[in-house]
Amino acid sequence: MKDIIEKRGGCTIHHGTYSDRIYVMSYDPSEAKMMLDFVRKLGKEKNYGKIIIKVREADRVLLLDAGFTKEGEIDGYYKGINTCLFMAKYLKPDRRRVREKAKILDAIDQVKDKKMNLDSFKWPSYSFRRLSEEDIEQMVKIYEEVFESYPFPIYDPSYIKKTMTKDCQYYGVFDQERLIGLSTCEINYKEKNVEMTDFAVLPSYRGHKLAKSLLMNMEKAMVQEGIFTHYTIARSQSLPMNMTFSSLGYHYGGTLWNNTQIAGNIESMNIWVKQINH
User: Fold this and answer.
1) What is the pLDDT of residues 136-174, one digit of tens each?
2) CATH 3.40.50.1980 is right for the domain spanning 101-275
3) Which residues contact 123 (CB under 8 A, 6 or more apart)?
4) How far apart are alpha carbons 188 and 98 in whole angstroms?
5) Kind and range of the H or E element at 194?
6) How far apart are CA 92 and CA 133, in angstroms?
7) Nearest CA to 267 among 144, 140, 145, 95?
8) Does domain 4-96 have CATH number 1.10.443.10?
9) pLDDT at 118 over 80
């Protein structure tokens, strides 16, 4: 069963047995203690393995006192000024144990200082544009081919249509009329930030810098929207995706260990952050 997104007061929570966790995506600062009491109770009732919360700096001590530790951060998350902390608590010993942790950290060291000379970048000979409702059928086909599993219902056309009219902009790359790759800008208009996410390129078209090209198009569009804090939460096992963000000037913001069900397994996720000068 897929995890659900639930609103409780001023709090938005993503939880379920699929990723075996509670993820507090946002909360009203005035309800911080109430939010914390609720998720701890929910975690115990559902026997989840992990709680991960996007926390304001002002609530750091509250979370530390409750046994949470910081796993990552996004500077400038709140209106380009204040930092968002990812605070985690493990409710099962097995969930805390990370397979190949040293290998993951070594991979981060390999990519985090690599930067690309944009002057020498050659655009692929394909067309790029923002996607619309007419593209949804092709979008779902790519998601189904690329992702064995995913934490959000991206295989559901109605979900894509709903997010497309709300807070998501989708971008695609085409070989003539055929969609061969896509990605998503998940925009937080209130806090003026955007998550660059859901990159999917058909296997037969990989190796042509399509993800990097999509990201550069997305950045340009977001700057035009007045959104200057850009970030992603990338699979730690996907070295090319981590390399894509690092090479375009994103800095490493930490790793969310054993965090997300994706591609059939619970995976650790790396945070990459970039604040565009304006």
Assistant:
1) 999 999 999 998 878 888 999 999 999 999 999 999 999
2) no
3) 213
4) 31
5) strand 193-201
6) 42
7) 95
8) no
9) no
SS3 labels along 137-151: HHHHHHHHHHCCCCC
Percent share of the chain, pLDDT over 90: 87
By CB neighbour count within 10 A (0-12 exposed, 13-18 middle, 19+ buried), where does 134 fall? Answer: exposed
Q: Which two tokens stand for residue 215?
A: 């990201």
- Owner of token pair 């990723």: 19
Distance CA(30)–CA(21), nearest Å, equals 24
Specify the domain boundaries for CATH 3.40.630.30 within the chain: 4-96, 101-275
Global model pTM greater than 0.90: yes
First to last CA, the chain: 43
**Segment 18-47 mean pLDDT:** 97
Q: Across the chain, what does the average pLDDT equal? A: 94
State the burial class of residue 153 (Cβ atoms within 10 Å of its Cβ: 0-12, 13-18, 19+). middle
Class of residue 29 by CB neighbours under 10 A (exposed 0-12, middle 13-18, buried 19+) = exposed
